[in-house]
Amino acid sequence: MSEQQTPSSPAADNPTKHRESSRSRLGLSGATVRNLGLVAALLLLCLVGFLTGGDRFASVQNLMIVLSLASVTGVIAIGMTFVITTGGIDLSVGSVLGLTTVWASTLATQTMADQYGWIVMVGCALLVGLAAGLINGVIIAYGNVVAFIATLSMLVAARGLAELIANRRTQIVNQSSFESTFQGDLLGVPKIVWIFAIVAVAGWFLLNRTTFGRRTVAVGGNAEAARLAGINVKRHLLYVYGLAGLTAGVAGVMLLARTGAGSSTNGLLLELDVIAAVVVGGTLLVGGRGTIVGTVIGVLIFATLTNVFIINNIDSSVQQIARGAIIVAAVLLQQRFARRSTS
Amino acid sequence: MSEQQTPSSPAADNPTKHRESSRSRLGLSGATVRNLGLVAALLLLCLVGFLTGGDRFASVQNLMIVLSLASVTGVIAIGMTFVITTGGIDLSVGSVLGLTTVWASTLATQTMADQYGWIVMVGCALLVGLAAGLINGVIIAYGNVVAFIATLSMLVAARGLAELIANRRTQIVNQSSFESTFQGDLLGVPKIVWIFAIVAVAGWFLLNRTTFGRRTVAVGGNAEAARLAGINVKRHLLYVYGLAGLTAGVAGVMLLARTGAGSSTNGLLLELDVIAAVVVGGTLLVGGRGTIVGTVIGVLIFATLTNVFIINNIDSSVQQIARGAIIVAAVLLQQRFARRSTS
Amino acid sequence: VSNEPAEEEGSDSEEMSSEEGSGGTMNDEPGETVTIGFSAPAADHGWMGAITSAAEDAAADYEDVELRVAEGTNDVNVQISQIETFIADGVDAIVLLPFDGAALTDVATEAMEAGIPVVNVDREFSSPFAARSTVLGDNYGMGVSAGTYICEQLGDQPDAVVAEIQGIASLPLTQDRSQGFEDALADCGLDVDNQVAAEFTVQSGEQVTANLLQAAPEIDAIWNHDDDQGVGVLQAIENAGRDEFFMVGGAGSLDVMEHIQSGDTVLEATVVYPSTQAADGIKLARLIAQEKNLGDLASSTVPRTVQLYAPVVTADNVDQFMDIGFRS
Amino acid sequence: MVTEDPAAPLLQMQGIVKHFPGAKALDGVDLDVLPGEVHCLLGQNGAGKSTLIKVLAGAHQPTAGTILMDGQEIQISHPVAALEHGVATMYQELDVVDGLTVAENIYLGHELASAGFTQRRTVASRTRELMARLGHPEIPPHREVGELSAAGKQIVSMARALSRDARVIVMDEPSAVLDSGEVDNLFRVVDELTSQGVAIVYISHRLEEIRRIGDRITVLKDGVTVGRNLDVADTPTDELIKLMTGKNVEYAFPERPGVPQDAPVRLEVTDLSLSGVFSDVSLSIRAGEIVGLAGLVGSGRSEILETIYGARRATHGRVQLDGKSLRRGSVGAAVAADIGLAPEERKSQGLLLDEPVYRNVTLSSFARIARGGWLDERAEKAAATEQAAALDLRPAGVDRAIRTLSGGNQQKAMLARWLVHGCEVLLLDEPTRGVDVGARSEIYDLVRRLADAGTAVLVVSSEIPEVLGLADRVLVISDGQVVHSGPAESIDEHQVLDMVMEGSAA
Ligand SMILES: Nc1ncnc2c1ncn2[C@@H]1O[C@H](COP(=O)(O)OP(=O)(O)OP(=O)(O)O)[C@@H](O)[C@H]1O
Ligand SMILES: Nc1ncnc2c1ncn2[C@@H]1O[C@H](COP(=O)(O)OP(=O)(O)OP(=O)(O)O)[C@@H](O)[C@H]1O
Ligand SMILES: [Mg+2]
Ligand SMILES: [Mg+2]
C-alpha cells in the first residue's frame, strides 16, 4: 500500500515515555481529533449554507430533509464501515439494495403482506440482503477471491436479477400496513431517521464494545496476528459481509418507505457515495481502523452538500466541479486539523 | 488489509503460500503460472464461444471486433496497472477520458486542427489527460489524500467540466486529417488495435525493464522501505498518476476515432471495468505486484465475454447474472490452476 | 400479469400501435424469417426498461422475427462493438437506440453500407446515411408541450415560480427538453426559477425533489421530465405535505395517467414520450427487411422518418391515452 | 529450577519434519521440555527455530512428526488447539494489532465478554495487573498499540502470553528489541513463571542471556537436532558455537587499527535538533572511524540516524559530508552523496517482502547499475550474489522471495544493500538484531573492513558490549541529549548504564 494510506507508521515511542502531544494533554483520543476535523468541515459547510440560504437552510424542516436524505446511505455506510475496517470493500451494496426493494415489493410479497402484515415485506428485504451478503462473504473468505472482484460480480448479477424479477418495471408499494408503519414521522422526526439513528448506535456498540467489533479491527489490522490469536478469520469475514448485506436490506426497507416504489434502478451508483462517506469519515481503506461516528459525519457532509447546492440553485455541471473540489478540501482541512492539534 | 488481499502473508499455512515450489522446478516464474491460469480461462471462454457460435465466433472479422472493443479499455488498463501496482487506485480515468474527447473535439480545437493538422487534437487530448492525472498525483502524493477520494473527486469534477465545455451536447468530429489518420485499418488490423498493441508493449517494457517500473513496484511493495532506499516516493506517485491520465488521453483519441464524437458521457463507469480487468489479470490491489500481460488478458476476457453474449443472443438481464457468475468462476479457475500446477 | 404494457393487452389482430395507424393485417402475415439485431442503452431507468421490454414483446408476436438483443450498455465503445458483431453475423436489419446518436453514426453507416438496413430509434444519428428509417420521439417538442401547458395555466401571473426537474443532465435529450421548455415559457413571459437534475430513477427523483421543495418555499408549477423518476418526485411532495402547485409529468407512464384520472395528486398532466418507439422500430425493421410497406400509406416503401407526437395528457383526455401508457 | 522428576517431560516434539515448497525447514527435530524449566533453543539464522515453534503453536502444519503433551499425543491443527493445550507463543515478528488498544490486544481471541459485549472494566483492571507484573504499570490499558514502540509492543505480546494461563510459553527472540533494563524485567517474569511450574521455551542469539536464565539447551542446525538437552552450566560456549555453526568461530570483536589523527572528517553534524525528540546533537566522524551511539530504548538514537539521513526533517542544525552541506529532509540527496542507512525495523522500513533477494539488495543502486533508465538485471544479480556470498547469506540463491529467508538472513540482505551501493558514510541501526553468533562476528569484521577502507560508520545498538567492542568512539545519548563522548576503550558497560539511567531519571 502506498505511503499515504498508512498515516500511522510505527511510532518509535518509548513504552515508559509516551508521545507528548497536546491532544493527550487534552485527554482526547486520536479518533476524537480526527472526528473534530470532520465536524469542523461540516460546520463550515453549514455556515456556507446559512450565509447563502438563510432560513431556508437553517430550519428544523430542512434539517429533517437532510437527515432523511442521509438515512438510506447512512445505514448502508454503517455496514460498509465494518467491511472496510476488515480491509475489504463491498461494491454490491447499491445493487443489492435495489434487489431487496424489488423483491420486497413484488405483487406476491405485497399480497402476502396484506395477509400477514408488513413483517413479510421487511423480512423479505432483510433475508435477500443477508443472503446476497453471505454469498459475497463465502466467495471472498472461502473462495479467496479479492473483495473488489467478488462484490463487483455481485453488483452486476444482483442488478440483472432485480431486472428479471421486476421485469424492468417500477413496482409501486400499496401495502397499507407497511406504509403506515414506516412512512411519516414519530415525535416530529421521520421514522427512517429513527431507523438510521438506531442502526448507527447499534453499529457503534457493535464496533467498539463487542467481541465482534474488536475482531473486525483485528482482522483488518493484522489478519495473520488475528489468526494466530485464535480468531476464525474466514468465518468472521463471512459475518461481516453478511452484515453489510443486511444493512443493504434495512436500507431497502427505508427506501421503499420513502419512495413508495421498488425498482431495479434503486441504489444505482450508491456504492461510490457510501464508500466515499466512510473513507472521508476516517475509516482506513487498508483496514484496521474504523469509526462509526466518522462515518455518520461523512454521510451528513455529503447530504448537506447536496442540500446546499440545490438551495442555491446551482447548475448541475458547476455543482459537480464544486463537489469534487470541496471533497478534497474537506479531507485536507481534516488532516491539517489533526496535524495542528498534535504538534 | 484483509487476508484474502495479501495472498502471501507471512508464514501462514495456507495453500496459496505453497506457490513457490514445483513451478520453480518447471522453471516457470510466479507471474507466468498466474497468467497461464488466466489464459486457460480465456481459452475456455473461446471454446464456449466456438461451440455456441461456430464460425460466427471463430472468424478473423470477429477477432478484430473483440480486439477493437478491448483497445480503448485496454490502453487505460495499462496505465491503471501502474497505479494499482503502487497500491493506489484511479477512479477518474473514465471521466477524464470523457473530458479529453470533449476538449479535443471542440469547434476551436477542430478549427485549429484544420490549419495545423490532427496533431492539435491529439496533443490537446494528451495534454488534458496528463494534466488531470498530474492534478490527481499532486493531491495524492503531496496532499496526502487517499487515492480513492482524490480520484473520486476528480471523477466528479472532470465530468462537470466536460459538460460545461460541451454544453452537454455531443460534438461531432469532422476533422478529415484526424479521421484519415486514426480511423480504418492498417495491414488488415484496425488502427486503434495497433495503438493498443504499441501501448501494451511499451507498458510491458516500462514496468519490467526500466527503473521507472522497478520504482513503481518498490513504492507499492513498501513505500517506507522505498523512501529509505532513496526513492523519491512522492514524485514517483506524481508520475504514475500522470501516466494514468496520459493513457486516458490516448484512449480519448482512440474513442474519438472510433465514435467520431466527443461527449461528456464518454467513459461513463469505465473505471470499474478497467480496474476489474487489471485485478482479474493478477495485479494486487494492495500494491507491489503488477503484470501487464495479465492486464491484457484480463481486458480480453471481458471483451470476449461481451462478444460471446451477443453472439448467443441472451436476454440482457440474464447476461448480467451470467457475467457476475463467470467473473467469479474465472478467478476461481485461475487460482485452482495456480495451486495445482505447484503441488 | 398486469405488468404487461397496456399496448400489448389488445387482441392479436390489433398489433400495430396507434401511431402507425391501424395496421394492415396483411403486413402481419408471416413472411420470410428475418433476424433483427437490437441494441439499446442499459435499462437503468423505467422508460428505457419499458423500451427494451416492448421491443422484445413486439418481436415475440411475430413468428417470422428472430430478435437478437445485445446487453444494454451506456458505453458507446461496447455498443459499437455490438453493432459490429451484428454486421459480422449478417443480420437482416438492425434496430438501434444509441446511447449517443453521433457516436454510433459511423458504425451504423457501416452497417448500411454492408446492406443491412438500420432503424434508428429515439436518439438521432448525425448523418442521414446512417439509417434507413428513423423513429423519433420529440424531445424539444416535449418541452414545448409542457411549457405551453404551464403557460396556459399561469400565463396571467408573470411572477409565478416554475421549477423543473430534469433527468440525467448530461444527456443531449435532456438539454433538448429543457430548451423547448424554456422557449415555450418565454412566450408567455415565464422562466424557470429552480432547476434540479435527477437521474431518471425513483430514488434520485425523491432526493432532489425533497431538496428542491425546501429551496423553493412557494411554487406554482413543476415540470418533471420523466414519469419514472416521477414516482419518487410525487412521494417527496407527499412527504413534504406540499400541494400549492401543480405538476406536469413526462413520458406518460400508466401509473401517472391513473393519477391524472383520479386527480388524487398534484399531477395534473403529463407529456407523452412513447416507450413504444423501439417496438415500432422492430416492426418497421421487419417490414423493411421483408420489403413491405406500412399498410395505410400510399407510397410503396417505409418512410424515412417517423416522428412521434408529444401530446399533453390531462384529466380531460386521459382516457384516450390510457392504452399507450407504459407500466414504468 | 529443574523439577524433581526430570523423566516426566511436559511437552515432547518428536521427529518433526516441515517442508516448504523448495525448502526443507525442519528435517526431524526433537524437543523435550520439562515443567518449570527454561529450555533454550539455539541455532544459526535459518536453522528452523521459528518454524519449529510455529509448528508447536499450530501456525504451521508439520509434514511429519508427533507432539506429546504429558505423554499423550495431541494434534495441533490450528492456533486455537495450541492455546487450548496450554501453549502460548510470542512470535518473532511482532504479532499485535496496531489499531487495537493494549487491553484489546492482550485479550484478542479470548475476550472477556458477556453476551458479546466486552467487559471493559474487568479487562482494564486485569491488564493493569499484567502490566504491573511486567514492570510497566505506566502503560495504560486503553492506549492504542500502534502508538507504542517496538519494545512496548513486545511487552504487550508478553502480557498476552501471560494472560493465557499457559503451561508452556514460547518466546521467539523476545529480547531482540529490548534494552538491558527491559531484559532484566523479562527475566524477572520468567523466574516468576518457572517457579510456578510453567515451562519456557526461549530463543535468543545472545548466549549471555542463555547463561543467565537457561536450564537446558537444544541446538538446531539446518533443520535437525544436533544437541539435545544440554545442561547450560556444563556446556562451554565454544562447544555451543561449534554445534550451531559446525566450525570453530572466535567470538570476538575485530581489532581497532586506530584512526590516524590526520584522517579527514567525513561526516559533520552540528546542533542537529528534531523538536520534541532530540536537541543540539553535534558529532563528527572521520574517515575510517566507527562511532557508536549508546542509550536506552526510546532515547532518540534512531531518530538521530534518520534525521542525519534526511528521512526526518531536522528542525534545525546541519549535516555536512566532506565539508558540503546536505539538503535538509531529503533521503535522495543523502543517498546520492553515498550515505546509507540500514534501518531498525527491517520488515516495515527495509524490505520488499515479496520481491526476490537481489532486488532488495539493489534497491538503492538499481538506478546506478541501470543504463539510461534500462535495468541491467544481470549486473544486479551478479552484484547481489557477490555480496550475499561475502556475508554468507543462507540460502545463497538471490532469486527467492526475501520473505522466505529467516530473520537474520534478512538483516544481512539489508547490509548487502549498502555494500552494493558503496558508502562514504554508513548509518547502522541495530545491525545485529536477530543475527546469529556466527554471522555477528562476520558483520563486525565487515563493518571494520569498511571502515578501514575509509567509510565513516555510525552504529546504534541496544547491546552496550557491542557498541563498546566495535566502535572507536562512543556517544552516550540520554533523553535526546549527548551526555558523553569519548574513546570506547576508556569506558565500560556499567559507566554507560549509569550515565544512561541518570539522564533518564533527570
Ligand atoms: N514460508 C516459507 N517458505 C519457504 N521457506 C521458508 C518459509 N519460512 C521459513 N522458510 C525457510 O525455513 C528455514 C528455517 O527458517 P526459520 O525462520 O525457522 O529460521 P530461524 O531458525 O528462526 O532463523 P532466525 O534465527 O534467523 O530467526 C529457512 O531456510 C527459511 O528460509
Ligand atoms: N512519530 C513520533 N511522534 C512523536 N514522538 C515520537 C515519534 N516517534 C518517536 N517518538 C519519540 O522519540 C523518542 C526517541 O525514539 P527512538 O525510536 O529514536 O529511540 P531509540 O533510542 O532509537 O530506541 P530504539 O532502541 O527503540 O530504537 C521517543 O521518546 C519517542 O517517544
Ligand atoms: Mg526465527
Ligand atoms: Mg531505535
From TrEMBL, chains A, B:
It comes from the Bacteria. Pfam families: BPD_transp_2. The keyword Transmembrane applies. Residues 1-11 have a biased composition (Polar residues). Keywords: Cell membrane, Membrane, Transmembrane, Transmembrane helix. The lineage of its organism: Bacteria, Bacillati, Actinomycetota, Actinomycetes, Micrococcales. This is ABC transporter permease. Residues 1-26 are annotated as: Disordered.
From TrEMBL, chain D:
Signal peptide: none annotated. SUPFAM superfamilies: P-loop containing nucleoside triphosphate hydrolases (SSF52540). GO terms for molecular function: ATP binding. Residues 11-245, 244-504 form the ABC transporter domain. The keyword Phosphoprotein does not apply. InterPro entries: AAA+_ATPase (IPR003593), ABC_carbohydrate_import_ATPase (IPR050107), ABC_transporter-like_ATP-bd (IPR003439), ABC_transporter-like_CS (IPR017871), P-loop_NTPase (IPR027417). The keyword ATP-binding applies. Keywords: ATP-binding, Nucleotide-binding, Repeat, Transport. PANTHER family: CARBOHYDRATE TRANSPORT ATP-BINDING PROTEIN MG119-RELATED, GALACTOFURANOSE TRANSPORTER ATP-BINDING PROTEIN YTFR. This is Sugar ABC transporter ATP-binding protein. It comes from Isoptericola chiayiensis.
